[in-house]
Amino acid sequence: MEQATKFELTQEFHDRFQQALNERDAAFISAILEEVNPADITSLLYEFSSEESKFVLDILPLPTRAQIVNDLDTDTRKKILEIYSAAELTEVVNQLDSDDVADILNELPIQVSEEIIGNLDQDLKTQVIDLLRYDEHVAGGLMAKELIRVRANWTVVECIDEIRKQAENVAKFYTAYVVDEKDKLLGHVALQKLILSDSKTLVKDICEDDITPVETYMEEREVAEIMKKYDLESVPVVNVQGQLVGRITIDDVVDVISDQAEEERQLMSGITEDVEEDDTLLKNVRARLPWLLIGIFGGMLSARFMGFFEHELTKIAAIAFFVPLIQATGGNVGIQSSGLVVQSLANPGYLDEGIWKRLMKMFYVAILNALLLSVIVLAATYVFFDNHRLSFIVSFALFCVVMFSSFVGTLTPIFISRLGFNPALASGPFITTASDLLGLTIYFMTVHVLL
Known about the structure:
About 65% of the residues lie in helices and about 5% in strands. The chain is mainly alpha-helical and about 450 residues long.
């Protein structure tokens, strides 16, 4: 098999390609992309407008065109598909697996989707209609109907003959799922085992029942966790009666994991909805504003709180110099603690595997960090301010702030997770604001008591 040409998008290539698009030079575009991997062509299309991308796609062979349309990110694909007629879209999606077709149809207006469904190949049409009744974020909406299904009472030779027929519609497979006469999943048999077994051997005699099916209603994140835990390339999907209805492959799960990571990254950055840089101005503002308002509210509370200790500030003005130190350290400690816990909570068994042992370990880490930081600050403040009392107050306050910020940063994600919310909400601006207020409270209470 020929290897696709290694592709590198240089400015020179971009400019020459743009010129070809402006001149509608189909011959040049076809020739230059002939041996380029479809994944690289997908990346290239992000550099051009929807109309230009469609022009490129129409030049490419239909299977390549379908693969690229399927690989495009959702927002870009929506913009490009708006230009396509229903007939053109039908031609493209007829090349795809049922789960990918269902995903694309869910992105289109209902009228267009129905027109496409009516013109799909009959087998694909039946499969897609079945998939569309599931929510897109559960196993039923994630699965593909294409799979290799064999009967337990077949011989190996019958099984191989049937696999040859079914394999026309299945792109990649390494195992055949074994079912009974009512399509109830019994197990699986590896292709290698089928090939090496005697032709008259019954499938049920070489079938392995160590299989981990998922139910159609299972959340996609749970499916991803199962596949990661057991290192599975595919997993069968069954209905409530235990009947085999589809399979989920690793490429679909990678998309779920990527989407989950992106969602948590945005939540930890204080962005409340899925948003990208090229989205509308209003959407960007709406996504960022809530946590910014919380930060402003926290800052106003901090300023008001400092007003209560105006007397202490007038006695020793240098007290105010250490407010940024206290707030920054508390915020950093809180972010570190919550970030580690959020990462650990991705493991569904985290809270069940000795929670107290984990909390005690974090407690010891917090003590050690607090001691080291407070000693450093004690020495530094003494050198620069030559005030024993001030040095002790600041270092003691910092010790307390580190301890309490670590405590808050550790427990808040766990508490939010217990309430059924995404623990990533605990990170970023939430912890930073809470740590600022907590740090100021501890600092000025320490000043008030010890000064």
